[in-house]
Amino acid sequence: MAVYFDYAATHPTEKEIIEKSFLFCGNPSSPHGYGIEARKALENVRRDLAKVLGCTADEVFFTSGATESNNTAIFGVCKAKKRFSNRIVTDDSQHPSVSEPIKALEQEGWEVVRVSTKNGVHDQKELKNAFSVPVALACFMSVNNETGARYDIKKIKKIIDTSGCGAHLHLDAVQGFMKCDVTSDYRLCDSISVSAHKIGGFKGTGALVIKKNAKIKPLIVGGGQEKGFRSGTENINGILSFGEALKLYNAEMLPAVYDMTLSALKEVPYLEFNLPLSRCNHIISCIARGIRSETLINFLSSNGVYCSASSACSARAKGNTVLEAYGVKQEDVIYALRISVSPKTTKEEILTLKDALLQGGERLLK
Ligand code: PMP
Predict the structure, then answer these.
(1) Which fold has domain 15-248?
(2) DSSP secondary-structure letter at 123?
(3) Could you tell which of 7, 71, 93, 95 is best to mutate to test the pocket of ligand 1, judged by most ligand atoms within 8 Å of the CB?
(4) Helices (H), ranges, 21-63
(5) Cα-based angle 170, 176, 182 (whole degrees, multiple of 5)
(6) Which residues contact 263 (CB under 8 A, 6 or more apart)?
(7) Distance between CA 173 and CA 141 in Å, rounded?
(8) CB under 8 Å to 198, separation ≥6 — which residues?
(9) In terms of CB atoms within 10 Å, which of 42, 89, 293, 346 comes out highest?
(10) Domain ranges in the chain with CATH number 3.40.640.10
(11) What b-and-e string marks burial along 321-357, b requiring 16 or more CB atoms within 10 Å of the CB?
(12) pLDDT tens digits, 323-353
């Protein structure tokens, strides 16, 4: 059986969740019995999600995943606030579902300020300057999907508030959600994106929290579902899987698993680590000195060990701006390796990973 170390890409769905996700067959908008029971189940998940995200249930909107949530927040807020300011503030380490919509707006004439994140920390001076004039949208993430850096959202919010720049603060909480994010951070944000499949729900399901006073326009219009904010028949099976995953995911063991994994990896002589000072407990970013990412990943995969180079989403892109923004030298990006764990990762799996990496070194290092 394969051992899996790519939980930052996706968390496989357990049988128990799959079974409970197909209990209702109706359309949640239908007025008959099937519809009513589907609606009830869906609203229960909305309430559970609201509890974890520190908001009210009517601030939670279901989407097709965090890519849609981020796109909706970015385009929707900028559309609503374009008379207020044409400045967007973000950083240089964003996931493509944030950086690409922002790039599209930049091409339309929006002014974009990208704060640097060397060593996984926002440059304080750049942050202050970025918010020194009116700002329509501030877009940040809680945990970086490639380096595991955990960002200080309280600090950003404080700068926004003291500057009086009026920015809407959007948080991409995908990687920190249920793992290391704290509800007090969520309370500071005007909108939040989360994704079901990072905690064991189905792929293609997510949510966007939009706080009551936020100014935002919908991106997807049609039949008026989700209070007219996100049309389209709700993905009831995906949403139920999200609800079950919320109940099952328990991050308590993550710090111990992380420490055990890091200690084991430190016994692999050719690995160098990109360890941000403030970091989450499920992503370890390394440089496999002397073995190209694809060579190592293929070797590991053929030995039943699955991990990734940096992120599944940037696997298709050329170069890696996120690792370079962190401080990895451009010529070292080809050696990137990302190991990510779950609270249920076992000691045996960690030892299998270490052994496979040691064998990889013997076979592949010249
Ligand atoms: N943001 C971050 C930080 C992510 O890691 C991901 C998933 N790789 C996304 C957004 C996109 O989420 P989804 O797969 O649900 O579209």
Answers:
(1) Aspartate Aminotransferase; domain 2 (3.40.640)
(2) -
(3) 95
(4) 33-53
(5) 80
(6) none
(7) 6
(8) 7, 8, 10, 11, 174, 175, 177
(9) 89
(10) 15-248
(11) bbbebbebeeebbbbbbbbbbbbebeeebbebbbebb
(12) 999 999 999 999 999 999 999 999 999 999 9
Q: What is the distance between the alpha carbons of residues 211 and 73, in angstroms, rounded to a whole number?
A: 11
Nearest Cα residue to 281 out of 143, 186, 153, 174: 143
SS3 of 186-242: HCCCCEEEEEHHHCCCCCCCEEEEECCCCCCCCCECCCCCHHHCECCCCCHHHHHHH
What amino acid positions are annotated as catalytic residues?
313
- Candidates 59, 39, 35; CA nearest to 49 is 59
Cite the residue boundaries of each domain of the chain with CATH code 3.90.1150.10.
3-12+251-364
Which residue's structure tokens are 């399901």? 205
**203 alpha-carbon distance from chain centroid:** 13
CA of 189 to the centre of ligand 1 (A): 18
Backbone angles phi, psi at 203, to 5 degrees: -70, 150
Our mutation pick for probing the ligand 1 site, out of 146, 202, 313, counting the most ligand atoms within 8 A of Cβ, is 313
Tens of pLDDT, residues 22-81: 999 899 999 999 999 999 999 999 999 999 999 999 999 999 999 999 999 999 999 999
263-308 pLDDT, tens digit each = 999 999 999 999 999 999 999 999 999 999 999 999 999 999 999 9
Sign of CA dihedral 241, 246, 249, 251: positive
- Ligand 1 proximity of 172 Cβ (cutoff 6 Å): yes
Q: Retrieve residue 88's tokens.
A: 């967007």
207 lines ligand 1 (CB under 6 A): no
Residue nearest (by alpha carbon) to ligand 1 atom 5: 145
Cβ of 206 less than 6 Å from ligand 1: yes
- Residue 65 beta carbon below 6 angstroms from any ligand 1 atom: yes
Is residue 312 over pLDDT 80?
A: no
Q: Can you name the residues that pair with 88 across neighbouring β-strands?
A: 112, 137
97 in ligand 1 pocket by Cβ < 6 Å? yes
